[in-house]
C-alpha cells in the first residue's frame, strides 16, 4: 500500500484513532506487574474494539464461552506478515505485556491485513466475472463484481476456482441463503455510487471497486446488525404464530450467516 502525502502509511494514520477508542477500555482492564496487558486482556480488548468499530468477529480473538482461551492473539497474524513482526508482538506479550500504544499498533496492523484481504478477494471476484483489472467497467459490470464479492464474503465461498456459471447459480440461491441479500445489494450499490461520484472522471475501475470493498469491510458488520435488529422488531409486532415462526427462521439465517467472521 502506498504512503500518504504526510509520509505515513495506512497503519500509522489509524493508530491515533484506534488508541483513543481503546483508552477507556485500557483504563478499566487489569494490568500485570509491569503495567501491561497479558494475553487474555489483549484478546478481550481487541475483540471488543473490532465489534464496536466494525461489527467484526475476528477468528482467533472471539470469546470461547464466558472467557478467552489461552492461545496467543498473535495467531491472527499467522502467514500474513513476516515472522519477525509476529515475533515482536509475541515477545512483548510474553515479556512485560502490551502497553496502550503497542495495543493500538497491533489493532491497526490487523485492520490493515483485513483490508488487504478484502482487496485480494475483490480481485478474485473480478477474475470470476472475466474482467481484467485494467479495464473500465459499466455500472452493471461493477455491480456484478460486487455481488460476487459479497456472495463469497457472506457464505464463505472460495472464488479462486469458481466459474462465472457457478457464481450465477449461487447468486440465484442468495435470497434463500441470506434473507437480507436484496438489502445488501442495495447497500453496495449506494457505496459504489457514492465513491464513483467522488472521483474526477466518474470512471469505474478496479481502484474504484477496491475503495468500495474496503469501505464495506469496515462497515458491513454494523449494517448487517442493524438489519437483524429491524427484523427482530417485526417479530415483536407479530401475532400470527405461523408467520412468526417463518420470520424467526429467516432471522436466524440472517444473523448466523451474515455475522462477520474475518
Could you write a compact summary of the structure shown?
It contains 9 helices and 2 strands. It has helices at 10-28, 39-54, 83-93, 100-128, 139-155, 164-177, 181-197, 206-237, 241-258; strands spanning 56-57, 260-261.
Topology, element by element:
Layout lengths: L9 H19 L10 H16 L1 E2 L25 H11 L6 H29 L10 H17 L8 H14 L3 H17 L8 H32 L3 H18 L1 E2 L1
Parallel strand pairs: 1-2
Account of the 3D structure:
- The chain is mostly helical and 262 residues long.
- The protein is 66% helix and 2% strand.
- The chain has 9 helices and 2 strands.
- The protein has a two-stranded parallel ribbon with strand order 1-2.
- Helix 4 packs across helix 5 and helix 5 crosses helix 7.
- The longest helix has 32 residues.
- It is elongated and about 60 Å long.
- The protein starts with 9 loop residues before the first helix and ends with a strand.
- The relative contact order is 0.11.
H and E string: HHEHHHHHHHE
Helix content: 55-70%
- Derived structural class: mainly alpha
Number of strands: 2
Radius of gyration: 20 Å
Indicate the overall shape: elongated
Strand order of the largest sheet: 1-2
Strand content: under 5%
Amino acid at each position: 500500500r502506498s504512503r500518504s502525502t504526510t509520509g505515513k502509511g495506512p497503519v500509522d494514520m489509524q493508530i491515533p484513532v484506534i488508541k483513543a477508542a481503546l483508552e477507556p477500555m485500557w483504563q478499566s482492564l487489569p494490568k500485570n506487574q509491569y503495567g501491561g496487558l497479558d494475553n487474555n486482556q489483549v484478546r478481550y480488548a481487541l475483540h471488543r474494539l473490532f465489534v464496536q468499530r466494525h461489527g467484526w468477529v475476528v477468528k482467533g480473538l472471539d470469546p470461547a464461552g464466558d472467557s478467552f482461551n489461552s492461545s496467543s492473539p498473535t495467531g491472527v497474524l499467522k502467514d500474513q506478515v513476516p515472522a519477525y513482526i509476529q515475533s515482536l508482538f509475541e515477545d512483548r506479550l510474553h515479556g512485560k505485556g502490551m502497553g496502550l500504544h503497542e495495543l493500538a499498533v497491533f489493532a491497526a496492523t490487523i485492520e490493515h491485513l483485513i483490508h488487504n484481504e478484502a482487496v485480494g478477494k475483490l480481485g478474485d471476484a473480478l477474475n470470476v466475472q472475466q474482467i481484467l483489472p485494467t479495464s473500465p467497467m459499466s455500472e452493471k459490470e461493477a455491480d456484478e463484481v460486487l455481488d460476487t464479492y459479497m456472495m463469497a464474503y457472506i457464505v464463505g465461498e472460495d472464488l479462486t476456482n469458481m466459474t462465472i456459471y457457478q457464481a450465477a447459480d449461487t447468486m440465484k440461491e442468495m435470497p434463500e441463503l441470506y434473507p437480507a441479500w436484496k438489502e445488501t445489494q442495495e447497500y453496495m450499490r449506494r457505496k459504489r455510487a457514492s465513491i464513483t461520484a467522488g472521483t474526477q472522471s466518474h470512471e469505474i475501475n478496479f481502484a474504484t471497486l477496491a475503495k468500495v470493498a474496503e469501505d464495506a469491510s469496515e462497515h458491513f458488520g454494523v449494517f448487517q446488525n442493524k438489519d437483524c435488529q429491524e427484523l427482530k422488531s417485526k417479530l415483536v409486532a407479530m401475532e400470527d404464530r405461523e408467520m412468526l415462526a417463518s420470520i424467526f427462521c429467516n432471522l436466524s439465517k440472517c444473523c448466523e450467516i451474515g455475522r462477520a467472521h474475518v
